[in-house]
Amino acid sequence: MIDLPKQAGPWARPENPRRITAATIFDYMDGGGELYLAYRFGHLDVLEYKAADASLGTILVEVYQMGSSDDAFGLLSTDWGGEPVALDPAGQPQARFPEALYGGGLLRLRAGDLYARVLASRESPASREQVLALGRAIAKGRRGDAVPELVSQVRAPAGWSPRPDRLVFFRSHLVLNSAYFLAAGDVLGLGPDVEGVTTECRPPRPGGRAARLIVLRYPTVDRAAVALRAFREAYLPETAKAAGVEDEGSAPIEEGWAAYRRDGAMLTIALDAPARDAARALVEAPGRGGAGL
Amino acid sequence: MRNITRRDFVRGTLGSVVAGSALTPAVAAAACGTGAQRPPRSARVVLVRDEAVLNAAHDVDIACLDRMLAETVTRMTGQKASRAAWQSLFKPTDIVGLVTTPHLNPTHQELADAVVKALVDAGIPRGQIVNAQGRIDKPRACTALIALPALKAHWLTGLGTVMKLYITYSDSPARYHNEHNADLAETWLLPGVKDKTRLVLVDALRPLCDKGPQPDPRYLWDYKGLIASTDPVAADAVGLQIITAKRKALRGEDWPLSPPPLCVQMADEKFGLGTSRMSEIELVRAGWTAQALI
């Protein structure tokens, strides 16, 4: 457990945190634990700071020990909304992929392999000050600016703009579906050892249809090949029957065009593109060094 | 049943996806029509709002809530007085189970308390009003149920309100968080549950419009409403309209729930539990009208 101050303004914490594990997370948050288990979750420590004056409300601190900084990034990436906050008092908040976000009394942050939520039940200037101070204490000595390497593979062809504020790093179809509903079940062979990034890409023409980009990296080439076959059968059955090259293709779908391309253990999928050429260009961009984020 | 995909959803062919699925005998018997071929239905949904029910700190004004509740049940039943309205729904011999949302933006306890008070006033013995949230033995012990969910989005099922309320009655609740979330209406048709819900009363005092899972205060807002119906699907459909409109207002652009709340449409088209079509819903409004979102 990281060392947090016993006192935060008028709020004081208990001596010891409550330790939540994968086995007990549903007792702690029935209906919510799946999000953390969808990443590589270690454990969660919970502390509730209380004030002698109950009208001030409480400050709840949840510190999630994740398997890697990528997992902590993934949890924060599920919502980039809120006010970016610099956890280094002398620093400026990062404009892209901030380390911490504040809004409505809630601070969410990533610091190395930690993800944390610090929530004041009653927001006030005083509670905000203490929430931010606790966030800084959690982050002390840990880097909060790490970005998964896979994010660098998010590239777009000329004129297209991948949106950093819609980018989600995921390992599970549950998280993918919360950003972009693809299918009720897992049609991409996802899991803790698979990395995925999805975002919306703005088209060259203002007001035009945005496309969806999904970039996946599997632990082996075979896993990627199996995943592509499963995706084609479940989502693009018309391509599963077509003869020809299996590792790349395109098809019209209800919301424009879809394309896919496998390159070794990497699989890139574009959906909802306005035309076949655009869909193909989107999946080819990573290999051709298209514009990144 | 094959995997429901985004393409099915966009095409509007969910009915055809499930038409060939293997329903359990009990559910198949309960289903009274599927897809576009189903017979017409109608439902009444009452929406009552009062600006004074929450203060700036979101605390509930009990007296105001009591008035809202009386307004809601009288408009729901067509009775002139609250006591008569409750008596038209429940008898003194009933064992009435209250089913609230227990976690993650729960039903306001003040609302559950107000319902108990109104039932006792209507002649239901206090000892016959029980908490029916939990395992299936709870509703089995009741002769009548009141569904009292909180209005909220849910990150796994899109909407986590009426259809999701009875999830713990299933032997395997977790399966509804995955591929089978579209089938949540099954839980309303389980033996011991089916046909017992006489009133759906949605706590829309302070809804949650984004998926969570844990409530994020940026997505909570003081809507200050109660939504009531005897049709659980229609109540969810109205709540869904409000949540969807709030999300659009927040972002200034369409911000559809993801995953889409397939369970609402499927409750109608696959399970015949009620209507999800706004064209078949008579919406009766009373009280505060600002930012009604519907």
Give me the number of helical elements of chain A. 8
Span between N and C termini of chain B? 35 Å
The major beta sheet of chain A can be summarized as: 9 strands, antiparallel
Number of strands of chain A: 16
Provide the β-strand percentage band of chain B: 15-25%
Low-confidence stretches of chain B: 18-34
Determine Rg of chain B (CA atoms, Å).
Answer: 18 Å
Q: Low-confidence spans of chain A: pLDDT under 50, at least 5 residues?
A: none
Order of helices and strands of chain A: EEEHHEEHEEEEHEEHEEHHEEEH
> Roughly what fraction of the amino acids of chain A lie in strands?
25-35%
Kindly report how far apart the N and C termini of chain A lie.
Answer: 35 Å
Rg of Cα set of chain A: 21 Å
Estimate the global geometry of chain A from the Cα principal axes. elongated
In short:
With 293 residues, chain A is of the alpha+beta class. Chain A has helices at residues 25-28, 33-37, 69-77, 125-139, 173-179, 221-235, 237-240, 276-288, and strands at 7-8, 11-12, 18-21, 41-51, 58-66, 83-84, 100-103, 106-111, 114-120, 161-162, 168-170, 195-202, 211-217, 248-253, 256-263, 266-273. The mean pLDDT of chain A is 93.
What features would you describe in this structure?
The complex is a heterodimer of chains A (293) and B (294). With 293 residues, chain A is of the alpha+beta class. Chain A has 2 domains: 7-139, no CATH class; 149-288, no CATH class. Helix content of chain A is 25%, strand content 30%. In chain A, strands 1, 2, 3, 4, 5, 6, 7, 8 and 9 form a 9-stranded antiparallel beta sheet that branches. In chain A, strands 10, 11, 12, 13, 14, 15 and 16 form a 7-stranded antiparallel beta sheet that branches. In chain A, a hairpin with a 2-residue loop joins strand 14 (248-253) and strand 15 (256-263). The longest helix of chain A is centred in the middle third of the chain and has 15 residues, at 125-139. The mean pLDDT of chain A is 93. Chain B has one domain (41-287). In chain B, strands 1, 2, 3, 4, 5, 6, 7, 8 and 9 form a 9-stranded mixed beta sheet that branches. Chain B has 9 helices and 9 strands. In chain B, helix 4 packs across helix 6 (109-121). Mean pLDDT of chain B is 90; it is low at 18-34. With 294 residues, chain B is an alpha/beta fold. The longest helix of chain B has 20 residues, at 232-251. The interface between A and B is medium-sized, with 34 and 36 residues.
